[in-house]
Amino acid sequence: xxxxxxxxxxxxxxxxxxxxxxxxxxxxxxxxxxxxxxxxxxxxxxxxxxxxxxxxxxxxxxxxxxxxxxxxxxxxxxxxxxxxxxxxxxxxxxxxxxxxxxxxxxxxxxxxxxxxxxxxxxxxxxxxxxxxxxxxxxxxxxxxxxxxxxxxxxxxxxxxxxxxxxxxxxxxxxxxxxxxxxxxxxxxxxxxxxxxxxxxxxxxxxxxxxxxxxxxxxxxxxxxx
Length: 225
Hints:
Family: Belongs to the tetraspanin (TM4SF) family.
Oligomer: single chain
Membrane topology: Multi-pass membrane protein
Keywords: Membrane, Transmembrane, Transmembrane helix
Mean pLDDT: 80
Largest sheet: 2 strands, antiparallel
Protein name: Tetraspanin
Shape: elongated
Radius of gyration: 26 Å
InterPro entries: Tetraspanin/Peripherin, Tetraspanin_animals, Tetraspanin_CS, Tetraspanin_EC2_sf
Number of strands: 2
């Protein structure tokens, strides 16, 4: 079984905490923004503006940290995936969600292992079966198209033994597959990020404008002596 420390990563934990914090702040921000706009409360609108600004700064900082720490993050992911592959057991329900997620990645990206199918040679079950089975989610064969998890048997094992080179699997490693997917979809990713940033900036501008209008109305209502 995997120890909890084997499946942990300081960078991934930090990223998860940031996402949780941003999500909680977004919910609070939406509530305060609606309440301040409906009741024309300046302090709530000011707090709404501050929350939006904090979220925008956090997103930019997270993007910069990810970019400059990508090699460290890649190394940590390599360790996590390596431990997952080594201890992968379809019959063991421990860490089931993590295993299903990895099978999904290999199926959708059409990849096998982190650097390649050779990574699966470290799996204890496959080693005990003399490599005459292979991960179904790695398969590039049409007959395995309906199976996306667990291990599949080779049709004709060579002398009762085999190597990863005999498997009908994708040659591409998932590290290269993920990088290729990010490069291919870079325009979409940047477009989405830019769109979110523009919406946040518009929200900040509108909140300031509404706050100023409320201040002007309050000023005109003050009786002159």
